[in-house]
Amino acid sequence: MSTLGFTIQTIGEVMIGITILYVHHKMLRERKFDKKVFADIRIEQWTGLIGIIMIIFGYIIQVTN
Asked: Residue 11, SS3?
């Protein structure tokens, strides 16, 4: 895979992840959920953040090799 194509793909994946985290953040600010849903959204936020970090590290590893 070309570096340019891989770069564009990685940027797209990170943008999708950031968008999802933003939506979750807005949902949490409304506070119209019960405690179980609130806790699940928090877990999804952390999982999403870890996923974005892994995408970025994977990109760095692939490009430097």
From this structure: helix
Question: Does 41 have pLDDT greater than 90?
Answer: no
Alpha helices in the chain (DSSP H): 3-30, 35-64
Q: Which residues contact 58 (CB under 8 A, 6 or more apart)?
A: 10
- Model confidence, pTM: 0.80
Contact call for residues 59 and 38 (beta carbons, < 8 A): no
Which tokens belong to 62?
């692939």
What distances in angstroms separate CA 46 from CA 11, 19, 20, one per listed residue? 19, 14, 11
